[in-house]
Design brief:
It is a single chain. By secondary structure, the chain is an alpha/beta fold. It has 12 helices and 13 strands. The longest helix is centred in the C-terminal third of the chain and has 25 residues, at 274-298. The chain is globular, with a radius of gyration of 21 Å.
Length: 376
């Protein structure tokens, strides 16, 4: 590079797709705070809705010199059995995030629309933007349930070209299950027009709320799942897209040639064994009870306006005017506990999301909140 072109746009800036120029990438919890930055002090990571417990991981010596199978059969069999679907209805992906991306890449042409219901998980919008799909936002109602009438209206508006509707249930970051009848109303309205994706990343914390059996009834329903939450394997990057074989086969045209690394397949399959499932269910019951305790505690805090009900491993708190979300974040980060500020999301001004940690971490969280209370 010569001095004269120091201020000229870089080659990347010249060549990058237009729609990506202004795009702000998703601020994942780990982009905001890296694990490698916290090596000297023990940090409580309560900002990414992970499981604080680590499953017992065994890796057999594998043929790492060989490419793995496209969809490793032991893994697909194990997940199909767990989810009570057929093998042909399962696609293993690199996290549920890859499922989101694949659905958009497979079904949306430029300027087709993706309908989302904020406040909700941020990657639906980011993946839509990176793939040049329009985003139609139908904000949730005050109780964070679906605005069914408006969603149906937007789907029916032909010029919108809605191809995919994302519904997160239970919803991140608000924590509640979407009413089954509302979801069914949207699926029925979208029949013959659009795919409805029920993102069940947190469903193990309220398994009875799953709509998985409806994939046999509705050909436009897709369910997303992950091992990142209840199964305690966020670092593994393994998720599942569940739907009828036509949709799964369409996604298989687009997915990478070897989407599931061999060690990932082994560990994931192990987590779905009988022992693995017993471990997961035990941790879910511990985390659910720690969550309920935390909710009861948080309701006693004078600076908390609302503690939203949660069927997940996180709790969203709305603060009163005498406390900002930044103050809470700062107070906790000084004590090496990371929470997640959700205040930038529509309808969520002055909110902080607390992922449920282990017993000691939750005791520390309560202690710090109590200290804050005493300073008021
Ligand atoms: C609602 C929701 N869907 C999907 C994901 C992505 O999960 P994965 O780790 O499997 O990519 C997350 C992660 O936080 C999430 O909250």
């Amino acid at each position: 590079m010569t001095d004269s072109n120091v201020n000229a746009p870089s080659l990347a800036e010249q060549l990058i797709r237009n729609n990506l120029k202004a795009l702000k990438p998703y601020e994942s919890a780990r982009r905001l705070f890296k694990m490698s930055d916290s090596s000297e002090v023990e940090t409580a990571w309560l900002n990414a809705n992970e499981n604080p417990y680590l499953p017992d991981i065994k890796i057999n010596p594998a043929l790492y010199n060989r490419y793995p199978d496209f969809q490793p059969e032991p893994l697909i069999n194990a997940y199909a059995k767990y989810a009570k679907v057929t093998n042909q209805q399962v696609l293993a992906t690199r996290g549920a995030d890859e499922g989101i991306e694949l659905l958009i890449r497979t079904f949306c042409e430029t300027n087709d629309s993706v309908l989302i219901c904020p406040p909700t998980y941020g990657m639906y919008a980011i993946s839509s933007e990176t793939n040049q799909a329009n985003i139609i936002k139908v904000n949730a109602l005050d109780d964070f349930q679906l605005n069914v009438d408006e969603v149906v209206k937007q789907i029916n508006e032909v010029s919108n070209k809605v191809k995919i509707v994302f519904v997160c249930s239970p919803n991140n970051p608000t924590g509640q299950i979407i009413k089954r009848d509302d979801l069914i109303a949207v699926i029925e309205a979208a029949q013959g027009k659009a795919i409805v994706v029920a993102d069940e990343a947190y469903i193990e914390f309220c398994l009875e709320a799953s709509v998985i059996e409806l994939i046999n009834q509705y050909d436009n329903l897709v369910v997303l799942r992950t091992l990142s939450k209840a199964f305690g394997l966020a670092g593994l990057r393994c998720g599942f897209t569940l739907s009828n074989t036509d949709i799964i086969d369409a996604l298989k045209k687009v997915i990478a040639p070897y989407p599931v690394p061999a060690p990932v397949a082994q560990i994931a399959t192990n987590s779905l064994s009988n022992d693995g499932l017993v471990w997961m269910l035990d941790k879910v019951s511990q985390l659910n009870s720690l969550r309920d305790d935390f909710i009861e505690f948080a309701k006693t805090l004078s600076f908390v306006e609302s503690v939203y009900p949660s069927q997940t491993n996180f709790v969203l708190l709305k603060l009163k005017q005498n406390m900002t979300s930044q103050q809470v974040m700062d107070t906790f980060s000084k004590q090496h506990i990371l929470l997640r500020d959700q205040s930038k999301q529509v309808m969520l001004g002055s909110t902080v999301r607390v992922s449920i940690g282990n017993t000691e971490q939750m005791a520390q969280v309560q202690q710090i909140f109590s200290e804050v209370e005493q300073t008021l």
